[in-house]
Amino acid sequence: MNKSRMWSPIQKIFHSFSLKQRIWLTFVVLITLGLMATGSIAYLIASKEIQRNAMQSSQDTVNQSAQIVNERLKNIGIAIRALMFSDAFKQLMKDVQANDRSSYYKSLTSLQYVFSQVKFNDSMIDSILIATPFGDFYPTSSVRNTANSFYQSEMYAHFKQLNRGFWSQGHVDPFFTGKQRVISLVTEGVGEDSFMVYEPTNVYVVVNVKEDDLRDLFMDNLTKTNKQYYFIDNKGEDVNYADRTSKDHFIQKPAFFEQLSDQMKGSFFYTNDKKDYLVNYSRLEVKDDWMIVSVQAKDDLLAKLNGIKRATTYVIIGFIILSLFITNNLTYLLLKPLYRLQRLMKRVEENDLSVRFESVYKDEVSQVGFRFNRMLDEIKQLIEDVKNRERDKRKAEIKALSAQMDPHFFYNTLNTVYCKSVLGENDDVNEMILALSQMFQLSLSGGRDLITLEDELEHVRQYLAIQQRSYENLFVCKFEVEPELLACLVPKIMIQPLVENCILHGFKDMTSGGDILISAHAEGDWLHITVEDNGHGLVPEKLLQGIVHPTTSKHGYALRNIYTRLQLYFGDQQRMEITNNDVGGARIELWIPSYEGEEDFHEHEPTG
């Protein structure tokens, strides 16, 4: 059951392929799997061999460099022991034991030859200092920095802590001028007596080795292709200076040093930031907490395999292209009519119903094509029928909405006419009847749904003439319309409901002081119409909610009527905004396309 569920989606995908795709897929999968298997096996074998050889080569290089540095440092130690066996040094030790300060300059002079011999035998030695209780001895060619006493230095404190000689890490020489970076060997001076019985002599020998020379010594033997080399101690601190970058910070991580064994040499892979590195290290015999470390990215280590990867990839791609070419030619003649029918279907998807399938053959594919032609004829006729019904339906909805005028307006108008007639105000009666007649004439507009902005504004003026007789001294209305816009087409009875909304709702409970502003101006290809007043204002959110989600409530009915008609006329090419202006009154803004002829409107008329 589980297997059938697992294979069911794969089968559905396979069944959805065309015949040509199935043939292609079969060849491509078989060839690709065979080549990938062969290439992967070859890659793995070559990868292991190259990795093994690279690890061994890198380890040999590091071991050789460590051996060279170790031998050089040993030789320096031997040179210092030879210095201690010299007659000048032995006489110095006797003077120190006898506390004889009178022979200082004599000992200093006799030691110069010894110093010269030591420095001549090893050019890496920069300076030598022999610190004694009654004075320091050093080559006269070096300038002593008398401000720094050995007995007050960190080297002296470190010696006392270890109670034995040691090699220091790279630092600026504090005992001689020049600020030379050196690595120092600090040991206690011994005389003839102290060889037999170990006794502190309080005499110390400091040999400063040039850090640059030491670095060059171990770097000269190392390749500088894509590897990084470090001369560090067990804490990851540099024995001599090194150019560290952000990616080298893992050298000082505890997790890195946990993989360093106590053995004198070794190698391992270390992962940092999802990248693997090959690490080789070799400790120095002269100081086993010093080591030379080589770091190389595994990607660089296996860079030689890129050629194999590229060759395998090219072969796979070549065979895939060849298989596609062969299968394409084999199936093209058989599927040619079907391809032609497929192209026609794609054009139908792009709403081109004028295409027709043509073929001189009478085979099964051609029969499908002829039936496809009959189907297109029927679809085209159905679409035309739907369009006609939708157009008639939209026109009927527009006419129904346009005819929905507020009966209260007629009732109130006729009632006002009657009252004024009884009171004998015949002039007002005549004007109201004439205005009402002209309103009806403009509303009918010869059966047209779209009228010019000039006729629409005239309709509003007749409406205002009636309302000003019904609500005397209640309001005044101003028009700000660009003259060139009067010829633009607008849906009829669109502005009058907005003005009516100002009078009935905005000026409710007011007896005078009402202002209505009607403005129209162009914004690019848009006609922007605004109706605003200084009345009580409205709640835009509530009205917008009622417009978008109509209810049976009559609140905002006029605005819903306008919004619906605009959608029927222009679809998405319109906009209505309901806000309050700066004085607290209502502001209704409409944006509709600016058309000056009905042919422009019908050209962009919505189809749905």
TrEMBL record:
It is a multi-pass membrane protein. GO terms for molecular function: kinase activity. InterPro entries: Bact_2-comp_sensor_kinase, HAMP_dom, HATPase_C_sf, HATPase_dom, Sig_transdc_His_kin_internal. Keywords: ATP-binding, Cell membrane, Coiled coil, Kinase, Membrane, Nucleotide-binding, Phosphoprotein, Transferase, Transmembrane, Transmembrane helix, Two-component regulatory system. Residues 372-399 form a coiled coil. SUPFAM superfamilies: ATPase domain of HSP90 chaperone/DNA topoisomerase II/histidine kinase (SSF55874), HAMP domain-like (SSF158472). SMART domains: HAMP. Residues 332-384 form the HAMP domain. Signal peptide: none annotated. It is found in: Cell membrane. The chain crosses the membrane at residues 314-335. This is Sensor histidine kinase.
